[in-house]
Amino acid sequence: MLQAFDVLVIGGGIIGASASHHAASAGYRTLLVEQGDYASGTSSRTSRMQNCGFMYFFEAHQSLLKFMLRPRRLLSALELARRTMRDRGDFVRTSPDRVRKVGFYIPFDEQGKVTRWRMWTAARLLQLMGGPAVSLEPGFIHAKDAPSDPVLSLLREKERKRGGFRFSEYQYNWPERIVIDTILKARAAGLDARNYTKVVALVHQAGFWSATLEHAGQTYTVKAKAIINAAGAWVDHVTQLSDRQATPINSGAKGVNLLIRLPARLKGYGMETVTSRGTPFFLMPWGDYHYLGPADAPADAALTEFRATDAEIDEILVEANKLFAHVQLSRADVIYSWAGVRPRTLSKHEPLGSMEVREHDLSTVHRPAFLAFTGGLIMTHRDAGRRLLRLLRRHVLPSGKPMLIDYNLKSQPDEDTVTAVSVRRAIVNEQAITLADILRRRLSVGWAADLGLGVAERASCLAAEVLGWTEQQRCQQVEGYRAEVQYSFRPAISLEKNH
Fold first, then answer.
1. Dihedral sign, CA of 198, 250, 83, 91?
2. Strand ranges (DSSP E) for 87-217?
3. Distance between CA atoms of residues 366 and 369, nearest Å
4. pLDDT tens sequence across 146-173
5. Which of 286, 176, 258 lies closest to 490 in space, CA to CA?
6. Is the Cα torsion angle 295, 300, 306, 311 positive or negative in sign?
């Protein structure tokens, strides 16, 4: 029997999860499909930060006059910052289990582009736009105090002597879990969610979209009144299933990060600055460690390997060593690395794409009720879901009754450890199919210093009991997981110790 839906959401990353959550809660009969596992693409390679929005004033710091002479850019930056601060406050208030507060620094620079008055002005604007509920807790570090400050003391003397700006930022405990949690909330509202299901054809006829789906080697067809293309960095590839001549709207940017260990006094502190090329550069806390990056380059997600190259690793280390006076890093300091391709809104003036995040109504180009989203960010995913829902309502009425949307995401006590209960829940309740699904996207152990290798054997044994794996299949899962870790993350640890 042919299944029919109000809306088909394509892409199981953070934007697809949020769009599905909002649509299902609004009464739409919604189907979400993801070609791999949920959150296994770009959402698994994000900065992990619920940023407050200072990044949107980056161009103003570089050239205030240029920024003011382009009023549309100024208005766009202010609007994006407003969305970011609003979603920051909303997420921290409703889902405190899923974030942790960290102290963040922005050092003043010798060119006078990042100054006390500019940071004070930006902080005031952000606080006014976001409201008082979740404060930035802004403050200034004077030059005389910089040598004893845990973060600024790492900088070269000429950076230290100018001081810096300190504020409170929030970090997701791990982004994949935010996606899984959001999909679970959407399923509770009626969503039909299917991972490892690929869209191979899209045809519009007689007022419906007909989507040919492929799962486990079998194909079948569903119908939907509307399409939401939330495929992230693959958004153009999905749109082109309906029209090979479709105009691109996305510009991918490959980003690379390195996990390192810094002195203990830096635990819980991060930094935002710029590279010698004038691009953003971050030092992010991650438990007892930190990660550095990104190294950015234009990329097509369908053609790009999600792994760091030697040149990209070296680029980040060079920039870090230019920044830090007392911590000189080498390849031996890299615990592991990761890479992903971020979706960016296409801009003819910017090779890496625009930082603008926006919804697109492609009905205007002969694709009825076909919506898409570009530049999706985890930190504004709820805003993206609301915007896509408003656009959807212009084309399709829901066939069911709406309910109050539930944003409250709570942690579970055993989600950071491998137990019979946590593994069973990941499979039975949360649609995990592979060992990687369990260790990295349902449990947090896949992001530990050993990338979950130390518990892979035990987890596979517990999963085999639930999924019915033969001993051969179980061993294949373990070997496949080890191979994925080795290839994608290039860990410094010896895999032999985990056999």
1. positive
2. 99-107, 139-141, 164-172, 192-194, 198-205, 208-215
3. 9
4. 888 988 888 877 677 788 999 999 998 8
5. 258
6. negative
What is the rounded CA–CA span in Å between residue 118 and residue 135? 18
Q: Which has the closest alpha carbon to 416: 429, 407, 426?
A: 426
Q: What is the pLDDT of residues 425-478, one digit of tens each?
A: 999 999 999 999 999 999 999 999 899 999 999 999 999 999 999 999 999 999
The conformational region for residue 375 under phi > 0 = left, psi -120 to 50 = alpha, else beta, is: left
Do residues 53 and 80 lie in contact, with contact meaning Cβ atoms separated by under 8 Å? yes
d(CA 275, CA 438) in angstroms, rounded, equals 37
CA distance 16 to 9: 6
126, burial (CB in 10 Å: exposed 0-12, middle 13-18, buried 19+): buried
Cβ count within 10 A of residue 352:
18
pTM of the model: 0.93
**Structure token digits, residue 353:** 């794409």
CA angle 305, 308, 310 (to 5 degrees): 120
Chain segment 30-80, per-residue pLDDT in tens: 999 999 999 999 999 887 888 887 877 765 555 554 555 566 667 777 888
Residues contacting 33, CB < 8 A, separation 6+ = 8, 9, 10, 12, 194, 197, 198, 199, 211, 213
Rounded to a whole number of angstroms, the distance between the first and last alpha carbons of the chain is 47
How far is it, in rounded angstroms, from Cα 469 to Cα 491?
28
Tokens of 335: 């615990």
Spell out where 36-159 has E strands.
49-50, 99-107, 139-141
| Separation CA 102–CA 484 (nearest Å) | 31
Look at the block and give the residue holding tokens 């394509």.
10
d(CA 189, CA 20): 10
Helix (H, G, I), strand (E, B) or coil at 74: helix
Q: Does position 498 have pLDDT exceeding 50, yes or no? A: no
- Can you tell me the distance from the alpha carbon of 349 to that of 367, in angstroms, rounded to the nearest whole number? 27
Residue in this structure with the two tokens 């382009």, named with its chain if needed? 70
Adjacent-strand bridge partners of 354: 345
C-alpha span between 189 and 179 (Å, rounded)? 15
Q: CB-based burial of residue 17 (10 Å sphere; 0-12 exposed, 13-18 middle, 19+ buried)?
A: buried
Q: What's the rounded mean pLDDT across residues 386-414?
A: 96
| Collapsed DSSP state (helix, strand, coil) of residue 203 | strand
**Residue matched to tokens 């992010």:** 284
